[in-house]
Amino acid sequence: MTGPDHVADGTPDSTATGEVFSPPLMPAADPVADADRLAARLAIVRDRIGRVIFGQDAVINEVLVALLSGGHALLVGAPGLGKTLLVETLGIVLGLDARRVQFTPDLMPADITGSEILEEDGSGRRAFRFVKGPVFCQLLMADEINRASPRTQSALLQAMQEHRVAVAGFDQPLPSPFHVLATQNPIEQEGTYPLPEAQLDRFLLQIDLTYPEAEAERAMLLATTGTPRAPAEPVLAPGELLAAQALVRMLPVGETVLDAILALVRGARPETATDEKVRRSLAWGPGPRAAQALMLAVRARALLDGRLAPSLDDVAALAHPVLRHRMALSFAARAEGVALATIIDGLVRRLA
C-alpha cells in the first residue's frame, strides 16, 4: 500500500490574491526578523478572516493560536454563530487542503479514515486498494462532532495524536500540516453525545463562541444580505505555516511565565491543589498535556501580537481555553451550582 500523496509547499498564489507576499517564510535563520515578518503576515490573515467573520475577533485569535501551536481546536457554540464558515475561511486564507465531515448518528469510523475495497482488473486478478477517507487532508472540519456515536468520535483519536491512521494492519501517514477543527453544539441540546475525556484532551484549545455584539451583528446583516460578498483570499501556504510553527517553538519563555503555567495546571488538580475548595469541587483535573498546550499557546499568542516572549497576561488569557475541557466538577459541586469558569478565574487571580 502506498501512503497519501505528498503535499507541496509553496508561496501563495499571487494571481488569486492580487498581491505578492515575498519572501516566503522559511525556517528561522534570524528569529527576530522572522518573527517581525510573521507578525505582519498574521495581521493580514486576521484582516482577511475578519472580512468574512463578524464580531468574533477573540475567537479568530484563539483559533490562530491553536494552529500556530500545531494543535487542534474544539469550537463550541449554538447553531448559527459561524463555526462552519470560520473553518472554511481559515482553509482558504491559510492555503490548506480542507475537507469537511458532517457528523451524524449513522457515521461509521471507516467513513472518516477510509477503507479497503476489492478490485478486479481486466485480466481477472483481484487486489485490495485503499481508498483514503476525508481525514487525509491538511485541515479537517469535523462538523457537529458530538452528534456522532462515541465509537465514531474515537476514530479521530489516533489521527489527531499521531498524524496517521492504521487500516488493515498498515499505517497510513497523514499530510503535513494536519489540524482538526471540530465544531460542537452545547451538550444540553437534543441529539448530542458527550465527547470521551481522552478525545477532549487531544484538543489544544476549547474555544467558546458567543453571540456577537450589537454593532457587529448590524455590520453582518448589512454585509451578508445585500450583493454577494467577495470571497476569502489565500495569504499563507502550508510550508509557511509549518515554518511559523517551528518559529513558535523557538520563542523563549521566562521563569516567571513557566512557574505560572505550572502553578495554574497543578492548582487545577484535586490531588495537588492548595485550595481546599478547589479540591472538593473537582473530580479530576488537567494532566501534563495541558501544561504543554499552555506553554505552546502562550508563545503563539505572543507572536500573534508581534512580541518575542510571552507574558503573564498570555497565561491568564489562555487559561480558560486550555483548561475548561480538561477538568470535571464533582457531583457535590454540580449540586451546589459551582461553575468551572469560576474555579479557573480564581486560579488565574492567584497568578498576579
Automatic annotation (TrEMBL):
AAA+ ATPase domain sequence ranges: 69-213
Region (Disordered): 1-24
Name under which the protein is recorded: MoxR family ATPase
Entry annotated with the keyword Cytoplasm: no
Keywords from the named record: ATP-binding, Nucleotide-binding
Family annotation (Gene3D superfamilies): Magnesium chelatase subunit I, C-Terminal domain, P-loop containing nucleotide triphosphate hydrolases
Family annotation (CDD domains): AAA (cd00009)
SMART domains according to UniProt: AAA
InterPro entries for this protein: AAA+_ATPase, ATPase_AAA-3, CbbQ/NirQ/NorQ/GpvN, ChlI/MoxR_AAA_lid, P-loop_NTPase
Family: Belongs to the MoxR family.
GO molecular function, one term: ATP binding
